[in-house]
UniProtKB/TrEMBL annotation:
Chain span(s) of sequence motif Histidine triad motif: 100-104
Record protein name field: Histidine triad (HIT) family protein
Entry's Gene Ontology molecular function annotations: catalytic activity
PROSITE patterns: HIT_1 (PS00892), HIT_2 (PS51084)
Active site per database record: H102 (tele-amp-histidine intermediate)
Source species of the chain: Thermodesulfobium acidiphilum
HIT domain ranges (all copies): 10-116
A Pfam family recorded for this sequence: HIT
Length: 116
């Protein structure tokens, strides 16, 4: 089948293996790889392989359910037994900079709350 793919989208390029990343989990519909600019000792991004702009554009919430399953999977696999945080930024006010849906999985240190 033909995947929806945007040539100017950095995460589409990573999903297509046209851009290098440190992949730590992959299946047919999702990918988890290390963030290039980590904010904590552990910082992984979980994305759908299919291009979706943000959570605000999701139609298939079964896919989101799968992505959250993968977030927990990678956190457990990496031994984040003291906890971790999952974040998705939506749009400009949300602080989104890459407009391909992704969940940040952040851990390895205590987190502050609320965020800035
Ligand atoms: P956002 O601000 O959209 O929620 O998060 C985008 C994240 O993608 C940032 O944490 C940023 O460091 C990461 N990022 C941007 N470009 C690349 C890249 O080319 N490779 C990887 N691995 N991460 C990237
Ligand atoms: Zn994309």
């Amino acid at each position: 089948f033909r995947r929806i793919y945007l040539e100017n989208c950095v995460f589409c390029l990573i999903a297509e293996k046209k851009l290098d990343s440190q992949i730590i989990y992959e299946d047919d519909i999702s990918l988890a790889f290390k963030d290039i600019n980590p904010v904590a000792p552990f910082h992984v991004l979980v994305i759908p392989k299919k291009h979706i702009r943000s959570l605000g554009d999701v139609e298939d919430f079964n896919l989101v359910s799968h992505l959250l399953y993968v977030c927990n999977l990678v956190a457990q696999k990496e031994g984040l037994t003291k906890g971790y945080r999952v974040v998705t930024n939506v749009g400009d006010d949300g602080g989104q900079t890459v407009f391909h849906l992704h969940f940040h999985v952040i851990g390895g240190r205590p987190m502050d709350w609320p965020p800035g």
